[in-house]
Design goal:
heterotrimer; A alpha+beta (375); B mainly alpha (523); C mainly alpha (294); A: Helix Hairpins; Cytochrome Bc1 Complex, Chain D, domain 2; 3 domains; elongated; B: 523 residues; mainly alpha; Cytochrome C Oxidase, Chain A; disordered N terminus; binds heme-A; binds dinuclear copper ion; binds copper (II) ion
């Protein structure tokens, strides 16, 4: 308790000191950087102003009455209680106003739904709690997880500029191209939202939703998951890097080559220490969210891996849980998500760290054999 | 006991059995109101946890999972434990008095409706202490987060909802039977006070949608324990199906939380303007129109789930239309005040604030209804701002107005007007301070249901938390005022408000334990 | 509007007994489900559930006994009678809405979800996730058969279900005959028709039970066999529960007739049972058409 209190105090001090630095009074929607986001912004402002005007009129009449027709000023009550003309008027006029709003809204909506004729298709998959991006037709994809450290979140160090809005691998798309997003999820419903593009779409497990954008201005744009998806819903940001098309092509080639090199690592001769070292990184990126930095989990929902008899006792079972996941729980099938090297590394790591000291290991080749044996 | 059929002109029974076994609408009404306030404090305390955690960026007080439990339980308790029972309590107390009936139509069932509520909330609150924690998937409990990925306590949550539903449905049946069958001779439908009208329609909404809620939680139960695939694509179901059924219940539900408040305000404004309600008939039709439209707009909560364009347009247009009947009501209230002779006692203050602030909440509702814009608003604090503006100064202020208005009738004493006005002004300031900045936060891009946020949202969150603490503390003052008034104070006449009209003011204050044993005649 | 004074019952212990019973019963069921899903012992849960249920049964006897006694003592006025009518009517409406939720799920799956999964319509690209899945209704292939093994075949509506339809419709008619007989004060006929109604109901239930066994054992049509099985069993299952409840009500009414209760012009309990029975019948017709035939 004492430690926590002290940490909280330290955190308070840090945040109060840095408060002036982060003073930000943004109070309106962003106009964004796409045609659609601009239209939505204008729609938003139009309706806002219409509401303000109606409000001013209604409240003006009301405040005038409150001021002038009060008993203390000797007002005598009138006795009218009906007036067909007024009543018709204040039914019809709002209807006309609404029709006026509906027309531009409809046209914007129709545009947003037009996902035809795209230059590039990207599959977005929501996971608890990170995103996966697959470039359709390119046979290339990767995960994107939040890179803000837990020390920052728990107020143990100062918070960086892009606190909670930074990731390890941003999505990269070419400028000036119509990009179609195919969106789905692996576990629960998430929602992929980048305000600057005005793209927000729920990712529904088992179904594919579509959305699109065309960004002309290169830059870095940030967003967040916008649908409650469990414990770490606050910690699955989105970062999109929009780059000129040439740069995009170079980037994609480089990434594919790197992926190929990575695959070759499977047949390398790995030592236990190497695997544990690599496994630590994988664990920190993929597993801490549920099983905890120290492997204590959060029983009974998320089992502890530290001293987990079942896991340590049976290596094949352990590997099986990782490759196939546990259906009907948050434990995903990492077989198609992680490379064989990473699978071997994280299994070896969990058996030899987090207070465990089993001394055995799995090599990437064994993982490959295990997977093949399943088919 | 049967032989003394007409012998109910004695006072209440003594001791605890008075409350456990009672068939008296006034006792039951009081119990509903007390229960509701207790729930408001519990739900409010959870909101305080939320606001304390959000006071600053970073995680200070609670873990994310517990934060989600707080958000979920706060929403559930406020909606089902605080607002709905408070309105049922008002209905119990006032409907028989307003229509000139000796009691509710089905008094024993009435008792059961009430006592089921503590049972349901005992079950719901007990989930906080279960392994794995309480429900943590939001008050909207979307599948599959609440089914496949829910904590074990979800099953208890489902049964709590069932019990709550039974209670609401029976309560609503009782209200309808009372209004349709127990009116004093001469009280035709179009002579009924508006509070009675709004409750009649609310009761209809309740009976229509609570069973649908029961149905959807039953589907969840089956998906969790019996292998059905309602919400799982692998078996041909769809998680979005859950949302359709939930919101078919959920949208009428939000009107269930506001229509009785419309009724209350429509009683109070004419009383303190000393002038008849403007447009009585159009008020009644407007409530009817809102109720009918409320069944056709549910998917405006789901604009981002990928509904086909045609559906999107239909739900957008239908939702926008609700502004018309609601506007009629607002205009009628203003026209009632216009050229009246107004005084501003606490009930009137709360009613005037209701009209202003509810309208602001309605405007943000209308903005949310614009489907393309909702892609930017959805699941941000803009939505949180919207619904707190219609719920806190809407439903809650409506309830406060009603309590101050009828408290003299219930207790026989006048409440302390100075304290009540203090309560009003502190609530007014605190509430706006707490919820207005949320509009800005939402527009600037802060998602809802998060325990921690990016740095650019720090300032407004801090202001909002301060306002929330202020609003919360002020509610303890309300408790004090009511207790003080119940214990003593200046004697209230039968009709403490000069301009008030209606049968309830023709009986003594406090209203005798049994009233209208033989119905009054209405001219 | 009647001007008599309205009967307001004395204090009653039954509501609170009902609350306690319901709470214990529900806690029992919930624990039962949670514990058995977690593979833990369910003994305590069974005991809780049984205790709660017994309290509920005790309450039902007591409460209804009370109402019947008051009614027979002539305490109820015609206005009271109308309250009961409104009450029963709206209760049945709430039941209709409960079934509507399940019918809604059925239509949604059929009209939207399945075609999308099969690659048709607005969200047709969904089929990328379920390669090889083809939309069809009734659903005899599920998107992921390893998790939701589909049924081998379905129940032919024109055999037993048709027979059951005839049974239920007939039972509605016999119930009406009983009612008319009561209005004519022909109590022997009332007894005959009521017994006939109950007999038809029991045969219906037996056939339905047989059909379930057949579905589970021979057709692999189960709760787990995808959305068709889910909606099929939830709809017919809840309907079956209502038939059981309705039958119990009819038995009680029959016993009361034998004891000489109800008069030719004052018999709301009897009528309420009939209303309920007709409601159950109408739901079945909806089921027969939308679940079995189309
Ligand atoms: C008491 C409760 C209450 C009430 C009365 C309302 C009233 C309205 N609500 Fe609200 N709403 C909620 C409670 C309520 N809402 C809640 C709890 C949620 C969130 C649920 C969740 O996700 O957790 C929600 C969410 C919500 C959404 C979904 C947002 C999202 O998640 O993205 C939408 C979208 O359309 C919406 C719209 C409306 C509209 C159009 C009205 C209309 O009824 C408002 C009509 C009133 C006016 C418009 C003002 C007065 C009118 C005039 C003065 C006339 C002239 C005006 C014009 C012509 C403009 N609401
Ligand atoms: C009628 C309904 C109702 C009411 C009255 C309230 C009242 C309040 N709400 Fe609530 N709220 C909802 C319905 C309601 N809310 C719903 C439906 C949600 C959505 C849930 C979801 O996302 O699933 C929500 C969500 C919600 C959020 C968003 C949470 C999130 O997205 O993570 C927040 C955040 O600030 C909030 C704050 C408050 C506050 C400060 C009050 C205050 O008005 C409360 C004031 C009352 C008290 C404080 C109690 C009295 C005082 C005491 C007990 C003494 C102790 C006081 C102190 C220590 C100061 N609410
Ligand atoms: Cu993913 Cu929220
Ligand atoms: Cu709504």
């Amino acid at each position: 308790m004492g430690v926590q209190v002290r940490q909280a105090m330290a955190g308070l001090a840090i945040s109060l000191l840095s408060a002036p630095a982060m003073a930000d009074w943004t109070m309106n929607m962003t106009p964004g950087v796409t045609a659609v986001s601009n239209e939505i912004f204008n729609l938003h402002m139009t309706i806002l102003w219409i509401c303000v005007v109606i409000g001013v009129i209604v409240f003006a009449v009301m405040f005038w009455s409150i001021f002038a027709h009060r008993k203390s000023r000797g007002a005598k009550p009138a006795n009218f209680h009906e007036n067909t003309t007024v009543e018709i008027l204040w039914t019809v006029v709002p209807i006309l106003i609404l029709v006026g709003m509906a027309i531009p809204a409809t046209s914007t909506l129709v545009k947003m739904y037009d996902t035809e004729a795209s230059d590039l298709d990207i599959m977005i998959t929501g996971y608890q709690w990170r995103w996966r991006y697959d470039y359709i037709g390119e046979d290339y994809g990767f995960f994107s997880s939040m890179s803000t450290s837990w020390d920052e979140i728990y107020n143990r160090t100062e918070k960086g500029e892009n606190y909670l809005l930074e990731v390890d691998n941003p999505l990269v798309i070419p400028a000036g191209k119509k990009v179609r997003f195919l969106m789905t999820a692996n576990d629960v419903i998430h929602s992929w939202w980048v305000p600057a593009f005005a793209v927000k779409k729920d990712t529904i497990p088992g179904f594919i939703n579509e959305a699109w954008t065309r960004v002309d201005k290169p830059g870095i744009y940030r967003g967040q998951c916008a649908e409650l998806c469990g414990k770490d819903h606050a910690f699955m940001p989105i970062v999109v890097k929009v780059v000129p098309p040439d740069e995009y092509n170079d980037w994609l080639e480089a990434q594919k080559e790197a992926a190929a090199r990575e695959r070759e690592l499977t047949s390398k001769d790995w030592s236990l220490a190497e695997l544990v070292e690599r496994g630590q990184r994988v664990y920190a990126a993929q597993c801490v969210a549920c099983h905890g930095a120290e492997g204590r989990g959060n029983p009974p929902i998320f089992p502890a891996l530290r001293g987990n008899e079942r896991m340590l006792g049976d290596l094949q079972w352990h590997l099986g849980v990782l490759v196939n996941g546990v259906r009907g729980t948050a434990m995903q099938a990492y077989g198609d998500q992680l490379s064989e090297v990473d699978l071997a590394a994280v299994v070896t790591f969990t058996r030899n760290a987090l207070g465990n000291n089993q001394g055995d290991m799995v090599t990437p080749l064994e993982v490959r054999d295990f997977k093949n044996a399943q088919q | 006991m049967g032989s003394h059929a007409q012998d109910h002109h004695h006072g209440p029974a003594k001791g605890i059995s008075r409350w456990l076994f009672t068939t008296n609408h006034k006792d039951i009404g009081s119990m509903y109101l007390i229960f509701s306030f207790a729930m408001f404090l519990i739900g409010g305390a959870m909101a305080m946890v939320i606001r304390a955690e959000l006071f600053q960026p970073g995680l200070q007080i609670v873990e994310p999972n517990f934060f989600n439990q707080m958000t979920t339980m706060h929403g559930l308790i406020m909606v089902f434990g605080a607002v709905m029972p408070a309105f049922v309590g008002l209905a119990n107390w006032m409907l028989p008095l307003m229509v000139g009936a000796p009691d509710m139509a089905l008094p024993r069932m009435n008792n059961w409706s009430f006592w089921l509520l503590p049972a349901a909330f005992l079950m719901l609150l007990s989930t906080l202490f279960m392994p794995g924690g309480a429900p943590n998937f939001g008050w909207t409990f979307y599948a599959p987060l609440s089914t496949t990925y829910g904590p074990p306590s979800t099953t208890f949550f489902i049964f709590a909802v069932h019990i709550m539903g039974v209670s609401s449905i029976m309560g609503a049946i009782n209200v309808i039977a009372t209004i349709l069958n127990m009116r004093a001779p001469g009280m035709t439908l179009m002579k009924m006070p508006l509070f009675v009208w709004t409750w009649l329609i609310t009761a209809f909404l309740l009976i229509a949608v609570m069973p649908v809620l029961a149905g959807v939680v039953t589907m969840m139960l089956m998906d969790i324990h019996f292998g059905t695939s309602f919400f799982d694509a692998a078996g041909g179901g769809d998680p979005v199906l859950f949302q359709h059924i939930f919101w078919f219940f959920g949208h009428p539900e939000v009107y269930i939380m506001i229509l009785p408040a419309f009724g209350v305000v429509s009683q109070i404004i004419p009383a303190f303007a000393r002038k008849p309600l403007f447009g009585y008939a159009s008020m009644v039709y407007a409530v009817g129109a809102i109720a009918i439209l409320s069944f056709l707009v549910w998917a405006h909560h789901m604009f981002t789930v990928g509904i086909p364009l045609f559906g999107q347009l239909f739900f957008m247009y239908a939702t926008m239309l609700i502004a018309v009947p609601t506007g009629v009501k607002v205009f009628n209230w203003v026209a009632t005040m216009f050229r009246g002779s107004m005084t501003f006692e606490a009930p009137m203050l709360f009613s005037v604030a209701f009209v202003i602030l509810f309208t602001i909440g309605g405007f943000s509702g209308l903005m949310l209804a614009i489907a393309p814009a909702d892609f930017q608003y959805h699941d941000t604090y803009f939505v949180v701002a919207h619904f707190h503006y219609v719920l806190v100064p809407g439903a809650i202020f409506g309830i406060y107005a009603a309590v101050y208005y009828w408290l003299p009738k219930w207790t026989g004493h006048m409440y302390d007007e100075v304290l009540a006005k203090t309560h009003f002004w502190m609530s007014f300031v605190g509430m706006n301070l707490a919820f207005f900045p949320m509009h800005f936060l939402g527009l600037a891009g802060m998602p809802r249901r998060i325990p921690d946020y990016a740095l650019q949202f720090s300032n407004f969150n801090m202001i909002s938390s301060i306002g929330a603490f202020m609003f919360g503390l002020t509610q303890l003052l309300f408790l004090f005022i009511v207790v003080k008034c119940a214990l003593g104070g200046p004697k209230a006449p039968a009709k403490p408000w000069e301009g008030a009209e209606g049968l309830e003011w023709e009986v003594d204050s406090p209203a005798p334990y049994h009233t209208f044993s033989t119905p009054p005649e209405i001219k | 509007m009647a001007n008599q004074s309205y009967y307001v019952p004395e204090q009653s212990k039954w509501p609170i007994v009902a609350t306690v019973g319901m709470f214990i019963m529900m806690y029992g069921i919930a624990s039962l489900m949670v514990n058995s899903s977690a593979g833990e012992s369910t003994r305590g849960a069974w005991i809780t559930f049984t205790v709660g249920s017994l309290i509920m049964v005790y309450m039902l006897f007591g409460w209804f006994g009370n109402v019947i006694k008051e009614s027979r003592a002539g305490l109820y006025s015609s206005q009271m009678d109308r309250s009961f009518r409104w009450g029963m009517g709206w209760f049945i409406f709430s039941e209709v809405m409960f079934f509507a939720a399940f019918f809604g799920a059925l239509f949604y799956a059929r009209v939207f979800a399945i075609p999308w999964l099969g690659g048709e319509g607005d969200k047709g690209s969904t089929n990328m996730l379920w390669e090889g899945f083809q939309a069809a209704w009734p659903l005899i292939h599920t998107p992921d058969p390893s998790v939701y093994p589909p049924p081998k075949s379905l129940i032919n509506p024109w055999t037993l279900p048709l027979f059951n339809t005839i049974l239920l419709v007939t039972s509605s008619v016999t119930a009406t005959f009983a009612h008319h007989a009561l209005k004519r004060n022909d109590r022997d006929k009332v007894k005959t028709w009521l017994i006939a109604t109950i007999a038809l109901a029991l045969v219906f239930l037996c056939v339905q039970g047989y059909e379930y066994v057949h579905a589970y054992r021979d057709l692999n049509l189960t709760l787990q066999s995808g959305i068709y099985g889910s909606t099929f069993f939830m709809l017919t299952g809840f309907h079956g529960v209502h038939v059981i409840l309705g039958t119990i009500i009819l038995v009680v009414i029959t016993l009361r007739i034998f004891k000489g209760h109800f008069s030719a012009d004052n018999h709301f309990g009897f009528e309420a049972a009939c209303w309920y029975w007709h409601f159950v019948d109408v739901v079945w017709l909806g089921l027969f058409i939308f679940v079995y035939v189309i």
